[in-house]
Amino acid sequence: MTPRETIAILDFGSQYSQLIARRVRECHVYSELLPSHATAERLRSGNVKGVILSGGPASVYESGAPRCDPAIFELGVPVLGICYGMQVACQLLGGQVQAGQTREYGRTRLRIHRPDTLLAHLPSETTVWMSHGDIVTAVPAAFDTLASTDGCPLAAVRHRERPVFGVQFHPEVTHTPGGEQMLRNFVYDLCGCRGEWRVGNVIDAAIEQVRARVGPAQRVICGLSGGVDSSVVAALLHRAIGDRLVCIFVDNGLCRNREAELVEATFRGHFQIDLRVADARERFLARLAGVTDPQQKRLIIGHEFIAVFREHAERVEGAAFLAQGTIYPDVIESGHGPGGQTAMIKAHHNVGGLPAELGFELIEPLRNLFKDEVRLLGEALGLPEALVWRHPFPGPGLAVRVIGEVTEPRLRILRDADEILLDELHAAGWYRRIAQGFAVLVPVASVGVMGDGRTYEGQNLVVLRLVESTDFMTADWARIDYAVLATVASRIMNEVRGVNRVAYDISTKPPATIEWQ
Question: What is the pTM of this model?
Fold first, then answer.
């Protein structure tokens, strides 16, 4: 904990725990994620102005379900329970929690009965995002009901004698339009925060921490991919330790067109950083031959990445630290939340994947940040706009966008289709309007008509995936102009051999993920 005013978020394993922290930081108040079992004494010593109890996948009435320290409610600071956090708070204070007769998932209409304190400045009815099967069925007489839904009579509550509040819905997600106002009410009106924290503080703190850890004769190796995350880490470390930074780019053959050339031009030319390029294209493709399972692909790529990286890292004299561009969505999807209870959605080779025998200490200055926060850091560090606002690219590269076996001919088809998509997005002014856009290659043969004849030349379906998101924990499909989609589809079918059909993915996250694999 730090001496600055802080909102502590106790993590019960929710996929959205860090999103709560991010929303608080958007209010210019520092927030810190802690495990659910953090003691009241630890919070007291950290200048905590308020406590938020996150959601989680467990049921509070089950044996072994996570609890918080009951003494937290005696600290005298406001406490807000969200979903599971509300259920924990109500149960510990004498309420009852049971499985609901109906489950609520997605957008739900909320009726506000008491538009004050936590729910001040909100309309009498609003939309909230629900994701629960259990509900609070009874609270002690000291509680007031603030709001309800058709399936949840106690959708928001407060304790009359203690500053304890609870909501069954998720105010932290963008699908709850009034959620930002609720959190501002909590942070400013109830906790009395002043809002003095800024993103620039992250740069100063990260540089200070790096200089404190890295000795004057030691060097840091940065695993550089060319994406915004690793690029920001490289720029941050270069500012902190200068030419004692060495970047290694592993060309695994799974990159987009001219990716390696772009990385070299940017970091050798623009930043004058010591960049080592490892050409391992044939090696990766040989290991992926015949593999179709997406999780196995990720594990193979992670294993080979470590092996190649080790070979080149051992040639750097004085290297004691390894820096990575790991961001929080990588961490949370890999099941490494602060509480250690988050479900694993997919493996990320840069999260917990580097074995101890590498002999390096790990530096991950972006580990608790979301993509949009990383972009703000990049702008503050002076990175080129085109690099800062580049769409995310998965660590395993195109291997997880080629459904089925990864081969060079199939990669070539996908690279060409993806390049056409990105070219047209730039030309139409849509690239910066969406969070991420890419093509997916699906091995589905479909009948077509080419040259007035029936053909099965199209052995592949190209699916376009364009999403809108601020935090990449939730996402919606982009309502892009049909004319742009038509141009992209026409070019792909005419210019990329082996494709005669293009589709558009309109899935949201959740329940889907942004990447297909």
Answer: 0.69
